[in-house]
Amino acid sequence: xxxxxxxxxxxxxxxxxxxxxxxxxxxxxxxxxxxxxxxxxxxxxxxxxxxxxxxxxxxxxxxxxxxxxxxxxxxxxxxxxxxxxxxxxxxxxxxxxxxxxxxxxxxxxxxxxxxxxxxxxxxxxxxxxxxxxxxxxxxxxxxxxxxxxxxxxx
Length: 154
Prior knowledge:
Layout: H1 6-17, H2 23-30, H3 34-46, E1 66-74, H4 79-90, E2 95-100, E3 107-113, H5 116-125, E4 133-140
Antiparallel strand pairs: 1-3, 1-4, 2-3
């Protein structure tokens, strides 16, 4: 990866806010002409600073009213069991993020569902059935204060 200068950081900040911004507008925002701006954007993509582009969807419009953060614990630490767990988690759409963490839990999951009834069923039928899971501790979000808004570029 190459070193980021002020303009690279400005490009990253701008596309992090609006990934659909036309190159002409991006160039104007960062103080470059279109061609050098497009070249830098391509370099940032090929160097791996930009992993992709996607839309932020509305949970409310999609009827996903419950966010749960879940600590998952294993009773035994086994690499093949962890690998199976992680593989299965990647395939479950309702699990929107999964982190292997330190502390009292082995994994922290973020789950979105329609309502508490669906969450109860999901916990019973899906979470507790995952390989290696011996304990599940749920924390329900009462109110979202800040949604992922991008990475710090300082």
